Fold these 3 entries.
Entry 1:
Amino acid sequence: MTVVINMRDGLDERGIRIAARFILEGKLVAFPTETVYGLGADALNENAVRRIFEAKGRPADNPLIVHIAEFDDLKKLAREVPREAKLLAERFWPGPLTMVLPKREEVPYVTTGGLDTVAVRMPAHPIALALIKASTPIAAPSANISGKPSPTLAEHVIDDFYGRIECIIDGGETKIGVESTVIDLSSERPTLLRPGGLPLEEIEKVIGEVEIHPAVRGKLVDVARSPGMKYKHYSPSAQVIVVEGKRENVRRKIAELVDEYRAKGFRVGVMATEEYDSDEFFHLGKTEEEVARNLFRALRELDKRGVDVIIAEGIEERGLGFAVMNRLRKAAGYRIVWA
């Protein structure tokens, strides 16, 4: 049985104590953060962390992010905390930034995907922070079946995990809608491993130029130094096609593709910033913030409506648009139509 704790109207101390007890007993708790919902376990309990991988069907070499509530907790997890990490934490924590650092011996290799580094962040969500403070540092990937779109509502978590984990905290819709930005600070040059909820431009204002790992642009890698680098991610059951190019050309190409697939007998869904004549339509919003917030919800919703093909409008790669396009291209398996 899964206990669902309703905190849509705000923090519930009794509910936090119940969820924290589950964590300390080595059980699994799904909880909201400002980015997406996480599937959490005690980061220092090997058996508990293994249950995350089993529940999600997640490959063992795909590292997890450890969530903390105080900066001092970082020193318990990381062997070294360079100057850049201190500057970024001071500026952006709590917030959607994950930093990869050399790990201490106390951090199990199961948590780090077998790596000598650990990915750490401090979430900017009152429920997440309260849960961590009441328990321990929590290892938590997104609370979805591995490879599927990340959850931005408790209903998404319930769809994937009800009856399979001990507890789900319902904190309503997440604010940002895409996962955290991951920066590797374990080597000489700061490197972006995954674009996310904190735009790269903001990070570079604090620590200068950041190298972009080739995996961000779709290059295959043998070793995943961060979540989101190596394996199939964010994909609904329907086939996803991303249309990119100049706005007027994109609009024309999407309309053509809708007609083409419908003529073949497929049910077609479109997710875009303006409406299209299709079997199903999901309006992503107008701003990059709205598009990011609605991205995974759109993929899940169109899947539920029974479409065979989802045609997604590409947006400009600036600010949160960089993370949006990274997720869309991965969801599509890099099936991209240039208009």
Entry 2:
Amino acid sequence: MGIFFLLLISTMVVVNSYRPRVMVLHSYSPKYIWTREVDKGIHRALKGQDWVDVRFHYMATKFHRTKAHFRRAQTRAHQAIAQFKPDIVIAIDDNAQRLVAKEYVGRTDIQIIYAGVNGSIDPYGYTNAPNVTGIVERKPLVALKEVLPLLTNQKIETIRTIYLAEKSHSTRKDAAFLAKFDWSPMTYQGHHRVQTFDAWKKIVESAPEKADFLLVSGYRALRRVAKDPKSVIKPKEIMRWTEKHSKIPVIGLNQFNAADGAAFAIGVSPYEQGETPVKLALEILNKSVPAGEIKDRYPNEYVIAVRKGASERRNLTIPKIFKAFAVATESYFP
């Protein structure tokens, strides 16, 4: 009997030692709703794939933005990779790329799959790299243009929009993307990126002077005091204040904006940003090909979220199909 168990354990060790290893390297932490939703997509794609050894590492750079924390997060991520020795690193969001993943470009022992990249992949050296593929993150602005006239029955050529967000690496890339987008026949009135809640409030209050819709995205790092990183405000407090005091409709560019209190949101699908890199990883492993031979992906999915009370107070016209979609994806809030 003892020999049997020894053989069984030895067999398990051998099998596990040959399981391909995939590390999911997150820029943020599960405290951030976006990261949690991306993880849902990852786990969905991993269902039935027990032959792959998957580890998660969270860098927690969303709420801790000091240079010291970034250095520690960078060092710990490299240490985790050195210890785990993954065949593939799935790097989620920009900080994971710029602080860690880009250092492995050109390696033959590690394949890189990026996701959640807001801007160009060029700064990371990913373009035409032999061991890199992935999926970018882009705000669904074409869909947004189609949706806005439906919400208020306003003629599209008369609609003016303005974008408001916190100051961060991601929102800087988003602002550049919005600025380059062809909004015609609408009018895009530019963007404001702020660091404090007081500055945010001023933009919200002045926005109706030049816009019909206030577009918002990230605000989870807004502070009461600019130089005090511990004065970060709870996101629901920010969005509930914004929804209450804005004289024009508040439209979120992330699903979680409606969860926080915005009347309506249309955003890139976090589930797709999680599922796609896993599918790419499985393709690499099944075909035994380097990542660079697999074409990069562009997002094809978006999610709609509705806050029932806020949308009704604003008399927004929510098409029934939007409501049904929001309900089906658990993004219809009271």
Entry 3:
Amino acid sequence: MANISLSLAVGEYDHVRDLASGDVRASGLEIHAVHGPIEDILVRGHRYKEWDVAETGLGAYVAAIDRGDDSIIAIPVFTSRIFRHSAIYVRADSGISSPAQLVGRKVGVPEWGMAAAVYARGALVHQYGMDLRTLHWVQGGLHDPGREDRSPPDPELGLDYRQETASSLNDLLAAGELDALISARVPRVMQGGSGRVRHLFGDPRTEELNYWSRTGVFPIMHLIGIRRDVYERNRWVAMQLLKGFEEAKRRSLERAADLTASYFPVPLMAYAVEQARSVAGQDYWPYGVEANRPTLEAFLQYAFEQGVTRRRIEVEELFARECLTYTKT
């Protein structure tokens, strides 16, 4: 039987490189990969279904499930994971130096349901005891006005939430019309060393490491989604893709730890690997459901509490059933 041809759109990550290039083969599949700006892939893949398989934002995916949209089915491959305590920015002259001082302040967010914002707000609530109803929330485009919010909060939460269409959040922050901002992307006003904006936490790295060590949560931003019609025609492709991504990731982690040559242009890379292993073990970037259950459960709880979903989605609803019991061999 001839291999099935699949188009794949994914960020140009080292841990997917060998599968995208064909150096790793997924049995029975012929993969044709394309790369591009990650925001472009996320929108085109999820909204327009332009590829058979595509990187998908966890927040948008969970919100779609809540709406009854099952046009994409995910596999437990997590392409982007980033801690988000460092995604909370404040004006340097705001007088804000702790989460408690955000009470009563205006806080911008590009999209309510984006995973980065969900995790950051979840930390504010569960780690620092904040009530999101005590903040004034402003949604809008980070650098360009008028960004649509695909998953605004449930009105029943009683949040003070408004959409800003005339100005960008970056400009509002620079002008003093916002006190703080939650954003996956660093705002321009923070760049260039102007000193006008800083992180909420003076030492976000320590905050994030402590959070990881204490909770076991390593925030997932993006995962791999298969278009439903592709999956239903050949359901076995889900497991074959998972195995292919796993092997590509294994090779990447080996490169990261290799002391023979510097495969990544990052000084002291080996020490960063050692630290990650000390917290999460040898496979500190795991795929599969069970190895990621604490992170997935936390996200789904946060999403429900924050009105991204109207009900508490279960972890098992997210993934192709063939992959639910996958364990690395």
